[in-house]
């Protein structure tokens, strides 16, 4: 397997990342006041919040999620590749397309977990040891209904001072999602002992189980091979 995260970088920046996040550990936050009506049929939303390994790993453990695929959103097809996106100048963000069953979990709960557990929404163009616009906090809604709920929730959380600083998450509609290379899929589940995962991402899984036990499932839903 091609490994693209540097072990040396992860170890060197781990202490600094932990210090930066010391004031914003995962914690419970209010549920959205505005949410969707329960409806039939699958629904998808694309979420970006740092390295897609951890975001994918979190949502693979959420009840009602039927698929979580790592990929890129915000740029064009020609640059939707890891080596190009890593430069930070393609417009892409490492993202995860979360598909869920609205009869088993709501968009509001997906967003609540996204803000509370999957990443720190107050960090601008960085998460933990990763820096650059490709690691920005962003929501790529499927439609205006999703965008409206996301905007309202950000306003609600800011007004409630749910975090120590304002939320910097952007809402970026009308962007195409491109699945990432196969070796990025299911990375957390397949590499639980990888140092980057141990330091940065396994604590998120533990936080999901602790903070939202009703939404946690022990066995993750895996992607398998994703065609490019």
Automatic annotation (TrEMBL):
Catalysed reactions, as listed in the record: [thioredoxin]-disulfide + L-methionine + H2O = L-methionine (S)-S-oxide + [thioredoxin]-dithiol; L-methionyl-[protein] + [thioredoxin]-disulfide + H2O = L-methionyl-(S)-S-oxide-[protein] + [thioredoxin]-dithiol
Positions annotated as active site in the UniProt record: 51
Annotated EC: 1.8.4.11
Limits of the Peptide methionine sulphoxide reductase MsrA domain: 45-194
Domain of life according to the entry: Bacteria
Keywords per UniProt: Oxidoreductase, Signal
Molecular function, one GO term: peptide-methionine (S)-S-oxide reductase activity
Signal sequence, start to end: 1-22
Family: Belongs to the MsrA Met sulfoxide reductase family.
Function, in words: Has an important function as a repair enzyme for proteins that have been inactivated by oxidation. Catalyzes the reversible oxidation-reduction of methionine sulfoxide in proteins to methionine.
HAMAP family: MsrA
Name of this protein: Peptide methionine sulfoxide reductase MsrA
Record organism: Candidatus Rhodoblastus alkanivorans
Record lineage: Bacteria, Pseudomonadati, Pseudomonadota, Alphaproteobacteria, Hyphomicrobiales
Gene assigned in the entry: msrA
């Amino acid at each position: 397997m091609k490994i693209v995260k540097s072990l040396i970088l992860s170890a060197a920046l781990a202490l600094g990342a932990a210090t930066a996040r010391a004031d914003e550990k995962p914690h419970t936050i209010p549920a959205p006041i505005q949410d969707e009506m329960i409806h039939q049929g699958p629904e998808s939303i694309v979420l970006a919040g740092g390295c897609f390994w951890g975001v994918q790993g979190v949502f693979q453990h959420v009840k009602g999620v039927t698929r979580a695929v790592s990929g890129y959103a915000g740029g064009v097809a020609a640059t939707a590749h890891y080596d190009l996106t890593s430069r930070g100048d393609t417009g892409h963000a490492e993202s995860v397309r979360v598909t869920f069953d609205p009869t088993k979990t709501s968009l509001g709960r997906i967003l609540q977990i996204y803000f509370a557990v999957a990443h720190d929404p107050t960090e601008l163009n960085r998460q933990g040891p990763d820096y650059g616009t490709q690691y920005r906090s962003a929501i790529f809604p499927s439609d205006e209904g999703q965008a409206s709920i996301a905007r309202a929730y950000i306003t609600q959380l800011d007004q409630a001072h749910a975090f120590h600083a304002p939320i910097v998450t952007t809402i970026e509609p009308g962007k195409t999602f491109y699945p990432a290379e196969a070796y990025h899929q299911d990375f957390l589940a397949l590499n639980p002992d990888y140092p980057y995962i141990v330091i940065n991402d396994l604590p998120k899984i533990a936080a999901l189980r602790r903070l939202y036990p009703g939404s946690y499932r022990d066995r993750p839903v895996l992607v398998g091979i994703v065609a490019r």
